[in-house]
C-alpha cells in the first residue's frame, strides 16, 4: 500500500482533544488506503518547559543529558496517539527514536540523521498495522545515547521518513494554514501562498520563518519529497495549505515572495585581530567546535595589519561563544583587544527566486529602510535573498514597510 | 570502591531545588569514597498525570503503550540529576532503562526484572565516573519495548541494582522519616520504628503501607540487601530512618508491630457457581490472565452443588475483572447466576513476627472492632498477620482503635 507521512506539531497535539482530532485526520487517510507514518511533536509548551529545567540546572549543559531530558515529551504524545488510534480500531503502535532505530551523528542537540532502517516498521505494516506513530525530534547516536535534531527537528524526522519509505507525500500539520508572505502576527496584510519553491522555503526557514525547520526543506529538496504545510484546525480539501515544490511547478510569482525576520539575534565584534591568512579559520573553527551557529560575517578594512571581525549568532549561543573565544585567547591561539556583544539586533530578509532575473531589489530595500530612518548594521546577500541586521526595536516597522513596498499583499 | 545505592522518590525530586538538595546528599556519600548508583522517580505528580492521560484516552489500554508513556517522567529527572551533579563537579551520567539495559519480562505495566548487566556502568566507574543516575521504574522487554515495574517500581529498581552491584546498602529517600506503626495521617499516635524485620515490612508493604513497594522488600530479603528508609528533608545521621533487616538483628519487639490499611479495595462475589474441583482454578486463572491481582478469597458453604465465591481486588481493576468474567461466561467456560461488586470496602491488617509465639491476637482484634460496632466482611490470616475487610467509612476508626489496643504508641 502507498505510504503517507503526516506530521503533527505541538499545538496539534496540545491536549487529548487535539490528539483525537489529529487521529480523525489520520483515519481519513487510512480509509483512503494509505499506510501512514505519523510523526508527533511534544505537547506544546512541554519542550520549552524541559529546556527551561535544563538551562536553570546547568547553563553550559552537557548536551547528552539535555537530549535525554528534552526528548521525553515526544515519547508521551507518540504513546497517546497510538492509544487514540487503537480506540478508533485502527491498528497502531508507537516507536521511540532508538526503537526504529533512527540513527544519527553524535552531535548532541544538533544531530543529523544518518540512516532510517525501514525493515522493522515495514514488517509491522505487513502484519496489518496501519499506522506507525514515531516520536519526532529524536534519534540514537553510535554510542547508544539519545540525540535530538535541534528545535523543530520533528519536521526533519517527517521528511526523512518520507524519503526513506518513498512516501507519496509528507503533510506537515501545524497551527497555521500555510506559508505566508510574512508573519501575520506582525503584518496584518500578510497573504497565504498556494505554492512556494523549495529554494525560497529554504531561505525563509533558515531566516527565521518558524513554519518549517530548515533542514527538513533541504532534505525534501534533495529527495524530491512533496511537502505540504497545512492547518490541523480546519477542514481539509486536497488543495489546502501551501505546497512546497520545484520552481518549475510554479507558474507566476512576484520578484520577492516573502519577508522573513529573526528576532533573537546577537552581533559580536572582535576588535583588533591580526589580519593574516588563516585568522578567520581559527576564529570560526573554534566557534564551530563550541557548537555556535555563526550566521552573517563581516570583516572590516584592515589598518596597520589589524582588523575587526563582526559576526551574528542566536542570542542563546552568546555565552557559549564568549567562553570559547576567551579560552582561545587564554591559550594563545588568538590575540584580540576586546570583544563587543550587541544583544539587541534583529535580522530582516527579503526572499524571491525572481531576484535572479531582476535587478534593483537590494537598492529598493535599502531605500525603504532609509526612508523609515532605520540604520543598517550588517548586510549579506545571496542569489535569491538580501538580509540586513538592524536594531531590534525597528523589526515590526521594517517588515511592514518592506511588505508594502514589494506589493506582497497582491498575488502575481 | 564500595558501591552505595540511593533512591529518591517523587517528592524528593519534585522540583529543581529538591533535586539540588538530593544531589548534595549524594555528594556527601561520594566524598566518603562510595561509587554511587542513584535511582530516581519522576517528579511527584508527573506519573499520575501521565496515567491520567492514558486512562482518559483508552480505559482498557494497550499496556505496551501505557509503559511507553508513563516511563517518560523518570527520564527527565535522571537527566536533570546528572546535570545537577555535573554542576557540582561530580562526574555523573544518566541511564534510561533500555540503556543499562535493565532486562525484564514482557508483562507490561507489571514487569519483573530478569537481569541487570553491570559491565556497562562498571566500565564508566572504572573511567572515573562517580555517580550513575538511573531512571527508575522502567526496563526493556525481550521484544525491545519499554516495560514498567508497577507503581512504586523505583524501589524495586533500587534494590535490584543494590543486589546486582553488591552494594553496601540501599538507602530509600522519601517524604517520611521512616516506617511507622501505622499511617500518621490517620492516627496521631503513630510511632517511628528504628528497625523492622523483612517479613513484617513485606506484609506491611503488600497490605498498603505506601513506604516501599512489596517486591522491593522481597528482593531485599532474598539477596540480603541492607535497606534503609529515610527522609530526604532532614539532616541525616548514620542512625536516621528505619533499617529493614533480618529479625535476628532486632532485640525486642511488640507482639504487633504495625497496623496497615488499604483504602481502595473492592469485593466481588460470584453467585451460584458449580462446587466442583477445578472451578477456583478456572476463575482465578482467568483473572490472572487478565492482569487482575486478586487478594483475599473466600468460598462459602456449598448448597445443592452450588457455592458463592468472594474475592477482593484493587478498585481500579474491577472493570478489567468484570470484562474477563463476562467473557468467560459468554464462552461457556464458567456458569454463575450473578456477579455482585462492592466498591466501598477497605482492608485493615495487624502485623507482627511476635504473633508466631503469642496466641489471642486475632480474638483481641475481632473484639476491638466489635466493640466499635464495625462489621467484619472477610477475614484472612497468615503466620504473622491478620487482615479483615470492613466498610470503608470505618477505616480511620478501626486503625485508631487497634493502634491503641495493641499499645503501638509505646516501644517494646
Automatic annotation (TrEMBL), chains A, B:
UniProtKB keywords: Amino-acid biosynthesis, ATP-binding, Kinase, Lysine biosynthesis, Nucleotide-binding, Transferase
Catalysed reaction, written as an equation: L-aspartate + ATP = 4-phospho-L-aspartate + ADP
Biological process according to GO: homoserine biosynthetic process; lysine biosynthetic process via diaminopimelate; threonine biosynthetic process
UniProt superkingdom: Bacteria
Top-tier EC class: transferase
Gene Ontology terms, MF aspect: aspartate kinase activity; ATP binding
Pathway in which this enzyme or protein is active: Amino-acid biosynthesis; L-lysine biosynthesis via DAP pathway; (S)-tetrahydrodipicolinate from L-aspartate: step 1/4; Amino-acid biosynthesis; L-methionine biosynthesis via de novo pathway; L-homoserine from L-aspartate: step 1/3; Amino-acid biosynthesis; L-threonine biosynthesis; L-threonine from L-aspartate: step 1/5
Binding site residues for ATP: 7-10, 174-175, 180, 185, 210-211
Database matches in CDD domains: AAK_AKii-LysC-BS, ACT_AK-LysC-DapG-like_2, ACT_AKii-LysC-BS-like_1
InterPro entries: AceGlu_kinase-like_sf, ACT-like_dom_sf, ACT_Aspartokinase, ACT_dom, AKii-LysC-BS, Asp/Glu/Uridylate_kinase, Asp_kin_monofn, Asp_kinase
Domain ACT: from-to ranges: 268-353
GO cellular component: cytosol
PROSITE patterns: ACT, ASPARTOKINASE
Binding site for substrate: 47, 74
Pfam families per the UniProt record, alphabetical: AA_kinase, ACT, ACT_9
Coiled coil spans: none
EC number: 2.7.2.4
Family under the similarity heading: Belongs to the aspartokinase family.
PANTHER family xrefs: ASPARTATE KINASE, ASPARTOKINASE
Name of the protein this chain belongs to: Aspartokinase
